[in-house]
Automatic annotation (TrEMBL):
Residues 21-30, 48-76 have a biased composition (Basic and acidic residues). This is PcfK-like protein. Residues 1-77, 195-251 are annotated as: Disordered. It comes from Vescimonas fastidiosa. Residues 217-227 have a biased composition (Basic residues).
Length: 251
């Protein structure tokens, strides 16, 4: 029986050594995986920083190009205005008449277009300073007629209020004297703060950095980690008194 006991002890020792070796392998594997995860996170962070830096550089370049475009636009407008101011009287009268005529070709209301256009051209021929105003880069006949339309609407509204009349179908209507339209046309070209000349202020709109994309869900089933090995249950060895009793029985 002592030989069997020794074999059992040896087997148990071998099993424990195997378990210890397997646990050591698992620990080393876990440490290697943890180190790999840390390295991957560092690489991801570096890649994200590089993407952000590239985005910021691209935005800075786009903003610089936008600002340069705005400067060129303002410089071109200023140069055109300075050129008009520097023109001689005869030159500016001819240029303003041509400009008014070119603008009028884009309009569709023939009667009004022709009458007002001829009035402005005639005034350009007689007043060089007015002709220079017509040559301002922001001034044109299309905006002039918008100015006249706005003034005519205000005039009609006031006329109906003064006469205690109510709008018909939500609108106002009345006859506007021709001389009033001519006066408004002249006012438009002399008014450097006309509402019709105000353009929507352009602003640079930065594009926000999209940030790191959300991680995709891994559809593949994760490999199941091997369950830790359990120690074999300890065998019940007969105590010394039991062995003695067996020997005694055998005797």
């Amino acid at each position: 029986m002592s030989v069997d006991t020794n074999n059992t002890e040896l087997k148990k020792g071998a099993d424990l050594a195997t378990i210890a070796e397997q646990r050591d392998d698992q620990r080393q594997q876990a440490e290697a995986e943890a180190a790999q995860e840390v390295l991957q996170r560092m690489q991801d962070t570096a890649a994200e920083d590089e993407k952000r830096r590239a985005h910021e550089e691209a935005e800075a370049k786009r903003k610089a190009e936008w600002e340069q475009k705005q400067r060129k636009k303002a410089e071109a407008e200023q140069a055109a205005w300075e050129n008009a101011v520097a023109m001689g009287d005869d030159e500016v009268m001819i240029a303003s008449m041509k400009r008014v005529g070119d603008d009028a070709e884009r309009l569709t209301r023939r009667n009004m277009k022709q009458c007002v256009t001829e009035h402005i051209q005639t005034k350009c021929l007689s007043e060089p300073e007015f002709a220079r105003q017509v040559m301002h880069p922001r001034k044109n006949m299309i905006r002039c007629f918008r100015y006249i339309t706005r003034k005519a609407k205000e005039f009609a509204e006031q006329e109906m209020k003064d006469n205690d009349e109510k709008p018909i179908a939500g609108g106002y209507g009345c006859d506007v004297p021709d001389d009033m339209c001519y006066l408004w046309a002249e006012e438009y070209f002399m008014d450097m703060d006309a509402e019709e000349d105000k353009e929507k202020e352009e602003k640079f709109v930065p594009k926000p950095y999209p940030g790191k994309p959300a991680p995709r869900s891994n559809k593949k089933a994760d490999k199941k980690k091997s369950a830790p090995l359990k120690e074999p249950p300890a065998e019940d060895h007969p105590n010394d008194s039991t062995q003695m009793n067996l020997f005694e029985v055998g005797a």
